């Protein structure tokens, strides 16, 4: 989402009580090792969208949330999405997790909770590009042997943006059917 869209949405509704960044790009791995890949264009693209893009959105959203919290005492929440796989992607998403922790500490005192959600193999158009063999192998590695749904991830996000999560901040929640617990043998 472009920053100007966030500002126009806030102007239209008069306030911002919560926000979730649910976007990213994934650069499918190649057979080349990282040092064998030429140029950093792919790195710049993935980091630019997944980390810098999220930071730009956070900057505008937190500006509005912090001023609203200071003037009204109203609580607000942020949820960021982080996925796992591949070095560029992992670097961008771990950057998001680090940013989540740092900003949670900074904005907790003004009533803004910031958390991250780390989905695994979720059935989305982005993940539809994975070939059948890779997809089958991925699902076989998940203790709950299927892809998750966007709705399952959304339910966690709705909870984290609600008053029921008012004492949760700086956390990363994994929604991956136990995939990251899997120890490849």
UniProtKB/TrEMBL annotation:
Highest rank taxon of the organism: Eukaryota
UniProt xrefs under InterPro entries: NAD(P)-bd_dom_sf, SDR_fam
GO BP terms, alphabetized: fatty acid biosynthetic process
Molecular function GO labels: oxidoreductase activity, acting on the CH-OH group of donors, NAD or NADP as acceptor; quinone binding
Pfam families named among the record's database cross-references: adh_short_C2
Signal peptide: none
UniProt similarity note: Belongs to the short-chain dehydrogenases/reductases (SDR) family.
Record protein name field: Short-chain dehydrogenase/reductase aba4
Organism: Passalora fulva
